[in-house]
From TrEMBL:
Keywords: DNA-binding, Transcription, Transcription regulation
GO molecular function, one term: DNA binding
Matches recorded under PANTHER family: HTH-TYPE TRANSCRIPTIONAL ACTIVATOR TTDR-RELATED, HTH-TYPE TRANSCRIPTIONAL REGULATOR
Keyword Calcium carried by entry: no
Protein name: DNA-binding transcriptional regulator, LysR family
Organism: Azotobacter beijerinckii
Superkingdom of origin: Bacteria
Similarity annotation: Belongs to the LysR transcriptional regulatory family.
Domain HTH lysR-type: 6-63
Gene3D superfamilies: 3.40.190.290, Winged helix-like DNA-binding domain superfamily/Winged helix DNA-binding domain
Length: 311
């Protein structure tokens, strides 16, 4: 009787190529050559009778069968990892790897104190942190978790809200001295605004206000537009280039130091949600579950979101 799982090396090659984005990068990760990985994946596709990868001269893509197989294969390898740790008697000390993608706002301002606490509590867990404003494909790119901004479409992902983050309008004291203080939205149109271009749509993100019981979505216009990194609007505002809207948790410290001031405070009150998301059918490792618990346990309420950090 032949070995039943003698093809696991080919499965590992497939996962490595997908997670690293190319045969060359996958080969470096596994200390082998691209041709060896190419032959391994061809053997795997022959065994399954299905094409897993779409190969072009420019990029690799997963077929629908490849996406399904990738998700199940990762779950199987996670099970093997868990079994090995348990047999080795390490179940009392959590170990493993968690791949997390977060936007720049959360990655620079909310997440660091939480990750520091997580690292102290679970020193054997390796966290791979991807900080980007691009919405990654959790399954295809091999991420366990992501933190997403805004109201999430029905994507099939599980979403657990972390907070509703308060927004406010700010500028530098120097800009206000030079250009004056707008008292209404109509006056705001006479000022230099610093809008952000949303990466998913290529459109300007509206500024949101609340006038009594009325919610207002206001579209700024300017000779300066910022894309890719939303934190750029705050940096430019701090250098007196204009006015921007940002999250209270980002600008609070600068305001306390007198480097920024709030404008139109009577129109504040709107928020945007941040949530942690993950694939519902993918088996989560103990390390992933521990990080989800830490994030959601320290979620901020609406009342706390204005200016407070995680305790």
């Amino acid at each position: 009787m032949g070995r039943k799982f003698d093809y696991l090396g080919d499965v590992e090659a497939f996962i490595a190529v997908v997670e690293h984005g190319s045969f060359t990068a996958g080969a470096v990760a596994l200390s082998t050559t691209p041709s060896v990985l190419s032959r391994a994946i061809t053997r795997l596709e022959t065994r399954l009778g299905r094409q897993l990868l779409q190969r072009t001269t420019r990029r690799l893509g997963l077929t629908e069968a490849g996406r399904l197989y990738l998700e199940q294969a990762r779950s199987a390898f996670t099970l093997l990892d868990d079994a090995e740790r348990e047999v080795q008697g390490q179940e009392g000390e959590l170990a493993g790897r968690v791949r997390l993608s977060v936007p720049t706002t959360y990655g620079h301002y909310r997440l660091p104190p939480l990750l520091a606490r997580f690292a102290r509590q679970y020193p054997r867990v390796q966290v791979e942190l991807n900080i980007t404003n691009r919405n990654v494909d959790l399954v295809a790119e091999g991420f366990d978790l992501a933190i997403r901004l805004g109201h999430l479409p029905d994507s099939g992902l599980v979403a657990r809200k972390l907070e509703d983050a308060a927004l406010l309008l700010i500028a530098s004291p120097e800009y206000v001295r030079r250009a004056g203080t707008p008292q209404t939205l109509e006056e705001l149109r006479q000022h230099v605004c610093l809008p952000f271009v949303m990466p998913r749509t290529g459109r300007l993100a509206p500024w949101v206000f609340r006038d009594g019981e009325r919610d207002i979505d206001w579209l700024p216009s300017s000779s300066i537009e910022i894309s890719d990194d939303v934190l750029g609007v705050v940096s430019l505002a701090e250098q007196s280039l204009g006015i921007c809207q940002s999250y209270d948790f980002i600008v609070r410290e600068r305001m306390e130091r007198g480097r920024l001031v709030e404008l139109l405070p009577q129109l504040r009150g709107r928020t945007r949600p941040f949530s942690v998301v993950y694939a519902p059918h993918r088996r989560q490792s103990a390390a992933t579950r521990a990080l989800i618990d830490l994030l959601t346990t320290n979620a901020i309420s609406d009342e706390d979101s204005a200016g407070s950090m995680f305790s």
